[in-house]
Design goal:
GPCR_Rhodpsn; mainly alpha; transmembrane helix
Length: about 325
């Protein structure tokens, strides 16, 4: 018994005696070379469409004076965040599809986690602000431009970016303090806090609780606030004229679709201990590659003002080319 106690070291001792991990191996979505080529093509198309669609929304809003309103100011911010959000993970995933070694340095992994949570948390706060903007516009239209003045919009935008930065720094600060001495395989196609802390050579129970208290609580609280806000909006629409009610309902439906797709992932991943489920990768694909593409589709195809502005901009470009 004494010999066994001497031979079997604990995790702390292992962390001290073994060399620290300098890189991680990303398991990815598939090990089949043919399937990886198919996935490369699929995600390359999705990423290209994501960049083109969101960039087009930003350019259209900046170009058209009629869209210089609080709602479209926040929508342009959403498109910019979606471009950044997908760029954090998708290019690395595309490169790994064509590479035999799917490795990422420790510093690269930390950077990926930081920017992933920065953009994700900022988008959560932005969606909440957008719900507040629609609440004021529909429930208090006479004072809308006063309440949502340009100065207030800039202040709200700065606040949500600051909040996302603080959230991300808090998570990364907890994660990088943990000792990593092996194994090195991250069970996903990108670095995220839950699968990475599972590789730590120490007990991570307290860190997991803090992650749930941080990311999970933010996701759940914002989701509840959003649902309640849109519930109040729907109740207030009962006495509106049919045309105004239809337009408001269309806008709210688009917002709710984005909220459900985006916050659904956050609640599923970050509101539970870091236990792996087979559905995690599928949910992560929607979170990082599909949802950023759906946003421009949802907000353009369902929005008459955006379609009008796009047609106007394309028409001007055609006319200038003819001249």
């Amino acid at each position: 018994m004494e010999m066994e106690e001497k031979v079997t070291p604990n995790w702390t001792a292992a962390a001290q005696n073994q060399s620290l991990v300098t890189e991680f191996i990303l398991v990815g979505l598939s090990n089949d070379p043919e399937m990886q080529l198919v996935l490369f093509v699929v995600f390359l198309v999705l990423y290209t469409l994501t960049l083109a669609g969101n960039f087009l929304i930003v350019v259209t809003i900046v170009h058209d004076q009629a869209l210089h309103t609080p709602m479209y100011f926040f929508l342009s911010n959403l498109s910019f965040i979606d471009i950044c959000h997908s760029t954090v993970t998708v290019p690395k995933m595309l490169a790994d599809f064509l590479s035999a070694e799917k490795t990422i340095s420790f510093g690269g992994c930390v950077a990926q986690m930081f920017f992933l949570h920065l953009f994700a948390c900022t988008e959560i706060f932005l969606l909440t602000v957008m719900a507040y903007d629609r609440y004021v516009a529909i429930c208090n239209p006479m004072h809308y431009l006063t309440v949502m003045s340009h100065k207030v919009c800039l202040l709200l935008a700065g606040t949500i970016w600051l909040g996302g930065t603080v959230h991300s720094l808090a998570l990364i600060g907890m994660t990088i303090k943990l000792p990593y001495c092996g194994p090195q395989e991250v069970d996903n196609f990108f670095c995220d806090v839950p699968p990475v802390i599972k590789l730590a050579c120490t007990d991570t129970y307290i860190i997991e609780v803090l992650i749930i208290s941080n990311s999970g609580l933010i996701s759940v609280v914002c989701f509840v606030v959003l649902v309640v806000s849109y519930g109040v909006i729907l109740v207030s629409l009962r006495n509106r004229f049919a045309e105004g009610r239809r337009k408001a309902l269309s806008t709210c439906a688009a917002h709710l679709t984005v909220v459900t797709l985006f916050l659904g992932h956050c609640i599923f991943i970050y509101s539970r201990p870091s236990t792996s489920f087979k559905e995690d990768k599928v949910v992560s694909v929607f979170f990082t590659a599909v949802t950023p593409l759906l946003n421009p589709i949802i907000y353009t195809l369902r929005n008459e003002d955006m379609k009008r502005a796009l047609n106007k901009m394309v028409g001007r470009k055609v006319d200038s080319e003819k001249k």
